[in-house]
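User: Hello! My lab partner asked me to get a predicted holo structure for this protein. The small molecule is pyridoxal-5'-phosphate, SMILES included with the sequence. Please write out the structure tokens.
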Amino acid sequence: MTKEKLRTLLENSVNELYAISIEDASPQELFQALAQVVKYAYADDWRQTRQHLLAEQQKQAYYFSIEFLPGKMLKSNLLSLDLLTIAEDVLHELGVSLDEVAETEKDMALGNGGLGRLASCFMDSLASLALPGNGNGIRYKYGLFKQKFIDGHQVELPDDWLRSGNVWEVRKESKAVPIHFGGNVYLQENEAGKLKPVYEGGFTWRAVPYDTAMLGYQNQHLNTLRLWSVEVPSKEEAKYATLESRQALENLTAVLYPDDSNETGRRTRLMQEYFFVSAGIQSILRYYKKMNRPMDQMSEKIAIHINDTHPALCIPELMRLLVDEEEMAWEQAWATTLKVMSYTNHTIMAEALEKWPVNMIKEVLPRMYQIIEEIDRRFIAGLEKVHPCDLLNRTRIISDGQVHMANLAIIGSHSINGVAKLHSDLLKAVVLHDFYVIYPARFNNKTNGIAQRRWLQLANRPLTKVLDDTIGDSWHHEPEDLSLLKNYQDDASVLEAIAYAKKQNKVALADYIEAHCGLKVDPTAIFDVQIKRLHAYKRQLLNLMHILKLYFEAKANPEAEFHPRVFIFGAKAAPSYHYAKSIIKVINETAAMINHDPQIKDKIKVVFLENYNVSLAERIIPAADVSEQISLASKEASGTSNMKLMLNGAVTVATLDGANIEIRDAIGDENIAIFGLTEEEVYRYYAEKNYSAYSYYENDTTLQRVVNAFVDGTIPGIEMEGKEIFDSLIKYNDEYFLLRDFEAYCDAQNRIDIAYRDTQRWKKVSLMNIANAGKFTADKTVQQYAEDIWQIEPLFAHVKDPHTASLTENKS
Ligand SMILES: *Cc1c(COP(=O)(O)O)cnc(C)c1O
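Assistant: Hello! Below are the structure tokens for the protein in complex with pyridoxal-5'-phosphate.
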């Protein structure tokens, strides 16, 4: 497409939508109009990808996830269509920047953090590899809450992202399916002698899909993200005439995390899980039937992936459809289900594994419960002679009045993977060891990855330009080609160009900080970044403790030499997570204290940016010098912000946790600051029960000064919160070993300071981080899922270079 063509299309689009001329369009109107043009540009390819898949009967994967976190889509879609620079030019001539226009798009924030973002990076990679892989989830009316700070406290505001419509989605009314909840079910023989479920009472709601195209990177391959929304069933409008009954229905897909502190909220969450699972599987079966193939050969054409346990009901739901509706024998249905399903575990902490009370499942999903009971019964019966009964009791699905979702997911899947080497090893050795004994061959590892296109090409244009000029642009398709940069590790002009790109990004972030926080920060300071959900195990508090130590030292000894630092936080706390919110409050008050201390000047600044989300991550990451990945070893399954920051040249301060270990292995100890307990040491403390936080406190005066600051009035305005934090560390013996790791952490930070002041060395370390980050591409991760787990192939497996393959032979 030429610039002139795009301009004409945009003019027409503005006219059709708003009946105004292009010069009068606001950035918001230009966004809507440009998005329409983008949609026209990919419509043919989207249709043809689907037609081709059906015609070829190619196997497809379906990624079921209760969260997706794509962020904004205008620029990534333009990039995929190779229209980014053209669009920039056209808008520039109109006197607006593409960024200004793109900024008006609402983030699609249908997820909390890493898990949802991973699902979206996978969508990007699947399409970019021309692999047939689709997403299946929920179209929440409200995304993850908008975070504001009021008096330093987190306040949650609704994220009404659909208010002005969502241009990218297509409502597929004709593909709606019914979803049944509640009532009673019993089995009765029909005329043919088959046992059939008879439903009494309950209610049936309608699931309507909204499809969004997932564009491959410049390869004309488009997959579909299908998100389900609840609606009143047709012909039943009268039943839902009252406000209350309609409200109850609409609540189902209203919010991402229904308040789980009460029974109603928890029931809604369970209903959400069944809702998108049942809708997704019904639509997959309808598609499969179009192929006219035997039902028991489904696994040759369909792979279903369960992203964490929230979609684990996929297993009994597919069983229900095969046995109840398709009249397949149980054994045959089970064999089919097992071959279709695969599951990714994302948690190590046993207490975080999902469970549902038997009574709630019976009440809300009575047929699901019967099927789960039968799966459980057969699991035990089949293994009784093979394994001791205490092992089976620990692994069965239903026990202690609870349905254990991970057990269900494992028993019903042919593949179970963790998301980093350490995590997968811990699953086998500890968390899921019992299952590993039963099903050793099912366990495997797939280390997480990220989409380099979004996290570098789009987010960091200055660095992209340097890379393209230095090593060419093959890394756009093959991120592992970033390793070519290693050839330039001693090239002064390349090192300087990379440093200059970083400087530009830091100036841009400094401007953002000034505009949003009214705080001036010095772009020549070290930008030290910790961005992730706020959670005790991620140890934002350890970061804060180091800041306090620096602060006290700077005050006691104003001549002390260290390079000025700006500590940047971005984090949301779950609304009901009291302790995490207290940490936010304490960070904010500490920031206020330090930022306004005239003795400190620009030596230390602390910035907590509001409302961390994908778009904010895209601003912060390119400007980061230091990446904080300091979770307690053994607690972070993988982490992905560690990869994004590395890719943008930040140097990592890390514990040996999750994928940090693989990052260290990739870049070598000289290019990362490792500190702290190892996973073995943590487990040894657990086994020997001999950790005493107090003894660390007692014997270290620096630590005392820092920990006391939470309760001795040093930090104004934090009485309750400070006490809570102090108690967690001292009275409740510091569950996440902050006091134990404090000294080692401060030491690692000191090494960072020394390295940064050696400018040449720092530039090289930064380059080596970028050069090695290609290993952590989601393309590779997804390729491994495709080969080892899903057995799916690129659409143009027979064409040599799928990137240049054209679907549209006869395009005029
Ligand atoms: C990448 C990402 C995360 C995950 O961060 P971790 O540090 O790996 O927990 C969370 N939220 C957003 C918005 C992200 O982009």
